[in-house]
Amino acid sequence: MKHVSILIPNGHYSLVNVEGTYQIFSWVNDYLSQTNQEPLFELHLVGQSQKVTQTNGLFTITPDVLLDDVSATDLIVVPAIHGDLDENLKNNSDLVPWVLKHHEGGAEVVGLCIGAFFLAAIGLLDGKPCSTHWQFANKFRELFPKVHLMDHKIMTESDGIYTSGGAYSFTNLLIYLVEKYGGRDLAVLASKAFMIDIDRSSQSPFIIFSGQKAHQDQLVLDVQEFIEQHFETKISIDELAREFNIGRRTLERRFKRATSNTIVEYAQRVKIEAAKKELELGTTTVSETMYHVGYADTKAFRDVFRRFAGMSPVDYRNKYVRELSSYSE
């Protein structure tokens, strides 16, 4: 039986992460008990004090054990902690040595959604793959360049460290852990009970690209604006360099440093985001959309679309148009 420590941090923690983890793992235990099998998880809510209230005052959790009560654990679950990272680390200073000590002692560690920021800040993710909410990917790359961020992934695993993508994708990681510890059949049953799409590996279809503009390089901001206003036409890097009176290499270097994308990648992402929005309306064919966003080569469009959206243009259109229309039937 796995001893599971679900941490209750100080600050504005994700109640959904905490309750969802407890609920799914408890369901597994209940199912096993009903079928005359031993439970899989020994679940504990672990806190730094007897009561932990979110900073917004809406919810209070009473941990059943405190940090010092846990002599050994097999799995540590760190929920998303919202707000300023430095403030969160300060408010949870007791958690840092506790997590590191138990990880060194063999415990596996799970960071849910932006809980990955906490794991990265205490050094557990250096040199490792990691996922987090796609909305905070650029900030994560800026803060933790030693971490191999894979923001398109629903989950990552490396040397006993697990991370999940954004929001409710943490449930996919929980199902993965059920399979790892309890087997495929049990994981399938749990996924059906909670209606979780098992084996989903990408959060790319859910990413909304709104430009990487949280930087102070005004020239790069102007170039980004220019690309977004002319996305339907083909613009070379040399043309951009002439338009903004700057050397090509200097422009490429500054653009990559500011946005974490090359100019070509940025232009592709702008085009694909425009294509996704058009396909979601269901009023044009894939070919029409392809031409509207500046592509003439079907294969090139399909390959780039799949790279950034995680599925083909046809599948994307069918997914969202069908799902929207089904609610009105």
Mean pLDDT: 92
Could you give me the name of the CATH homologous superfamily of the largest domain?
Answer: Class I glutamine amidotransferase (GATase) domain
Q: CATH first level of the largest domain: which class? A: Alpha Beta
Shape: globular
**Nearest-angstrom radius of gyration?**
23 Å
Spatial arrangement of strands, main beta sheet: 6-3-1-7-9-13-12
Write down the secondary-structure element order: EEHEEEEEEHHEHEHEEEHHHHHHHHH
Task: Sketch the major β-sheet.
Answer: 7 strands, mixed
Please bin the fraction of helical residues. Answer: 40-55%
Q: First CA to last CA: what distance?
A: 47 Å
Helix count equals 14
Strand content: 5-15%
Domain HTH araC/xylS-type: 221-319
InterPro entries: Class_I_gatase-like (IPR029062), DJ-1/PfpI (IPR002818), Homeodomain-like_sf (IPR009057), HTH_AraC (IPR018060), INH-QAR (IPR052158)
Protein name: Transcriptional regulator GlxA family, contains an amidase domain and an AraC-type DNA-binding HTH domain
Keywords: DNA-binding, Transcription, Transcription regulation
